[in-house]
């Protein structure tokens, strides 16, 4: 049975994955996030391990999504866009906790 964990961790890993695909390199994604390249690489390796699938083709210069990675990327991009829209809506409403 898979261990339960806070939702923030999987969402953060999905965001990292999306940025890696968008940047085309671990270095570019790390730069955009202000993280070490090794942290980005470890996050992707952990995500692949948890999902049980290779998400990225890696070369010395570039990463590209596998077929499974592309499907996962599309879902992640939709999810992140929805989360951003919800946050923007909340902020625009002036609501407070």
Helix and strand topology:
Elements: H1 8-23, H2 26-33, H3 37-51, E1 56-58, E2 63-65, H4 67-93
Antiparallel strand pairs: 1-2
Helix pairs in contact: 1-2, 1-3, 1-4, 2-3
What would your notes on this structure say?
By secondary structure, the chain is mainly α. 68% of the residues lie in helices and 6% in strands. It is built from 4 helices and 2 strands. It has helices at residues 8-23, 26-33, 37-51, 67-93; strands at residues 56-58, 63-65. It has a two-stranded antiparallel ribbon. The longest helix is centred in the last third of the chain and has 27 residues, at 67-93. The radius of gyration is 15 Å and the shape is globular. The protein starts with 7 loop residues before the first helix and ends with a helix.
Helicity level: 55-70%
- Overall shape: it is globular
**Strand proportion:** 5-15%
Instruction: Give the termini separation.
Output: 35 Å
Low-confidence stretches: none
What is the total tally of β strands? 2
What integer value in Å does the Rg equal?
A: 15 Å
Strand order of the largest sheet: 1-2
Mean pLDDT reading: 89
Main beta-sheet strand count, sense and barrel state: 2 strands, antiparallel
Number of helices: 4
Q: What letter string, H or E per element, gives the SSE order? A: HHHEEH
The helix/strand class is mainly alpha
